[in-house]
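ok so i was messing around last nite and threw this chain in just to see what happens. nothing serious, just curious
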Amino acid sequence: MRSEKDELGATYWDFYKEVHGIRPRWVNHEEATVEWYRASLERLQIEADAMWQEQQIREGEATAEFEKSVESLIASGAGDRATAIRWMHEANDTNYDGEYLCYQLGLPYGYLRNDVVESRPLVSH
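result:
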């Protein structure tokens, strides 16, 4: 059975990686205390909350910009949403992968889930 300190240490190890993208290898588990882990986890939670809020703002802005671009492409000759999004795939070289286009444009993951766009076959003359 693991001690409270070991449980908190494991939680801190994983949560730090989730928030910062790296493991906190400099933390000396032998010297850290239960109180230190608790305080550090509280600080990490505050950081994670702030980062989440910033991400929501960025994704909202990206979504608004994306929708304006779709409207503009439709008005410029795309004719419909599917064609406009296909053009965006082509411009961003995403191989018609909606998740990758979301990533490229800063959209929320899965935003284009309902906008399945397939490549248009090349017509040879």
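not much to say yet. The chain has one domain: 4-105.
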